Fold each of these.
Amino acid sequence: MNIRLRHDAIVRILRRKGTSTVDGLAREIGASRRTVLRDISALRDQGFVIHSETGRGGGLQLDPNSMQTTARLSVVEVFALIISVASMRAAGSLPFSDLADAGLAKIEKGFSGDKVRDLRRLLDCLYVGQLSPRQDISNLGAIGPELLPAFEAAFLQRLHLRFCYRDAKGVETIREVEPQAMLILPPLWYLVAWDAGREDFRHFRMDRICNPEIVQGAQFRRRHVPFEDDVCPFSDMPR
């Protein structure tokens, strides 16, 4: 279990049980006592008020008024919320859009300056449009949860992305590209990238991408994506 999952588990256990011991938490999350103590210290640094009482009947208690979601959300998690709201709005299925926007604004206010800048940079890479009725979506698949964290690193650090891609005919190839944008045409989601080998932009359906991997090395430059010419592609891409 990684650090973030441990922290989430500890908060969840303390909220559910009210009181727990360090040893009890260690058993439940499968970590050492020393690790739990470090995690408790880290949670306190994040703003969680965790009381500690010694002696029989004592233990750790979480002040419910200190549970702050904004301190717990990462940039990519907030980005996922924003693009989900944006895609639902584009599809005409977001009846409470004003409330959703207000909630997201409150979350963003709890971010540090660095996180806000990263979030803005990710939003600059996001385009939402309407899907052409001529587009075939009969073979729509699921999008892997590992894609968005990989996209975050590629977009923010401007690093190449390598992945396995399955085209419309089921042929799989390994592609290495320069990610430039995310295009959402509900229910289809595309990664728009510059393919240096083909010297052109390519649209990759996200439900056909798997095993994304960041390629460490030289950074690529940001390019202007000509969405004005064709923001709603209906042909089966990429070629």
Amino acid sequence: MNPKIICHIMSSVDGRLLTERWTEPFNGKSKGELMGVYAAIGRKLNADAWMFGKNTLQEGYFPKKFHTSDKTPLAHPIPYLAHKTSSRLFVVIDPDADILYESSAVRGDRIVTVLPETAPAAYLEYLQQRDISYLFAGVKGDELNAAMKALAETFGVETLSLQGGGIIDGAFLQAGLIDELSLVVYPGIDGSASSPSIFEYIGREQAPARGLSLELLSAETVQDGVVWLRYKFHK
């Protein structure tokens, strides 16, 4: 059984994600203070794992890439469980198997990286040396159902908080894996048609949300104009 997946995201009132483009809060507070509200709400979800997309991870934490001349994969790769150094996990999907980690944790939470079965043996050895857990999601590393099942069965994950960006949210949406949407609405506007939105599916499916419907569970005005909406996905 897959873990419960909650898409927890903060957007402007027009559904955009680039915080630097949002208008300023009306009351003179900083954007950072209101982002802190989003983080506090996230802790209420009590997820035992959380994740965001590879691009977000590399931009904010690990910008360098791993290089090896030997691309030979293992014949029968198996997941690797690193030492337990935190109660919560941080998960990232890395279909290129090339993130160069300078730490085995993100914000204190130990990393689990989702890889293709064709990941070079040299890269797997590097991850083990860094004591970083990994699992596999098919030949291309993009079989999300397989990845989530492995997280539940191998790592004991019961609830995962999916925190963007829009591309990874869109992939999970199209796969029908999201159980709940936790949408924190920032009291400001982006206004640009070119800015990424909450769900940015990239693929052949023309209607990635086909067959899904949303049930409003709660609507709460938190503070400083921030609104928290929770929806249940029906499939």
